[in-house]
Amino acid sequence: MIVRDYMTKNVVTADTPANRDEILKILKRTGISGVPVMKDGELIGIITRKDLLGNPHETQIALLMTHDPITIKPDASLKEAAEIMINNNIRRLPVVEDGKLTGLISVADLVGAVAQLKIKDEIKDRYVSRTFALWSETPLTIVGRIMEIAHVDAIAILDSESRLEGIITERDLIRCSCIEDDIEVSDFSNGTDDDEWTWESIRDMHHISYAISRIQLPTKPVKLAMVKKVIAVPTNAGVSECALKMKRGRVDQLPIVNGDSRLVSMLYDRELIKALIDYAPQ
User: Fold this and answer.
1) 124-176+219-272 falls under which CATH superfamily?
2) pLDDT tens for residues 41-60?
3) Which residues form the CBS domain (predicted)?
4) CATH placement of domain 3-116
């Protein structure tokens, strides 16, 4: 099981010079989570959804992207790819051969490989993560900030009866986001209000106006943006069974529920690829 056989070969890339707005359009159009950045045919960085959402005021790609990203060779094993992604908390590896970008191996590609292994063992504690949830009326602006603080890619959404109602992901946030242009004014003055000289003389006021551009989330409740048809699994689901559900549903996470459809925990794709370390043939 080597990278060459599972990687994506037709890679969507961005060439410099490029701006943030162009990257946002690419992510919205394709639904992918990250884009390699090229210059004169050479890989110089990677920019992701998380970079855009975490730095809404920044427009320069050079300041947003990760420079000199970790790469992997096409003949490396999937186990090695999984170890690199897990240890470095990344979701994709550019595949480079002879200095040229030949493909991209992602967490989703590795999940597809886990599905092929037909592992019947239950997911249990090694792959399952503790989680939290939000109420369906929570504004998207708050949801985005919570996801950033908690370093999660998705959050389960509960209704007023504490039952699982949906899932909100970074992909959904990008889809709902827009570029907002505005003018802000900075006010500089000589002195303060409690300065006697200021009251007895003419205060010099300096106003500086400048344009800002930022990625903005709407204030609408999360229930209007979340995925409502949630793919969930029981607590005794098998490893490859879960991987297959992720692959077919094109999702990055699966809520784990009990018999009453109550949320118990979450299964994230980045945790599930540990199965390649545990079960993949050498």
Assistant:
1) CBS-domain (3.10.580.10)
2) 899 999 988 888 888 778 88
3) 7-63, 65-122, 226-282
4) 3.10.580.10
